[in-house]
Amino acid sequence: MTESNRLASGRARIDSLEMRGITKRFPGVLANDHIDFDVHFGEVHALLGENGAGKSTLMRILYGLYHPDQGEILLNGRPVIISSPTDAINLGIGMIHQHFMLVQSMTVAENVALGLPSSRGLLTDLDRVSKRIVELAEIYSLKIDPSAYIWQLSVGQQQRVEIIKALYRGAALLILDEPTAVLTPQEVDELFIIMRQMVKDGHALIFISHKLHEVVAISNRVTVLRDGRKIGTRPTSETTKQDLANWMVGREISFAPDRGNVERGEIRLKLDQVCCGSDRGTPGLCDVGLEVRSGEILGVAGVSGNGQCELAETVTGLRKITAGRVVLEGEDVTGLAPGELTDRMLSYIPEERMRDGMIREFTVAENMILREHHKRPYSRFGFLALSDISTHAEKLIAQFHVKTPSRETLAKNLSGGNIQKVVLARELSRSPRVIIAAQPTRGLDIGATEYVREQLLEQRRAGAAILLISEDLDEILALSDRIAVIYEGRVMDIVSREAATPQKLGLLMAGVHPEESAPAT
Amino acid sequence: MDTQTLIIGLAGVLFAAAPIVFAVLGETLSERAGVINLSMNGSIILSAMGGFAVAYKTDNIFLGFLTGMAIGAAVALIVAFASITLKQSQVAVGFVLTLVSRDLSYFLGNPFMGQPGPRLSSLSIPGLADIPFIGPLLFKHDLMTYFSFLFIFLAWAWIFRTRPGLMLQGIGERPAAAFVRGANVNRLRYFYTVLGGALIGLAGPTYSLSVKAGWNGTISGLDGIGWIALSITIFGGWNPLRAAFGAYLFALLQWLGLVLQPSLPGIPSQVLQVAPFPLMILTLLFVNIGNAEWVERTLAAMPEPTRRVTAKVLRALRASPPAALGVPFERD
Question: Is residue B169 part of a domain?
Answer without folding.
Answer: yes
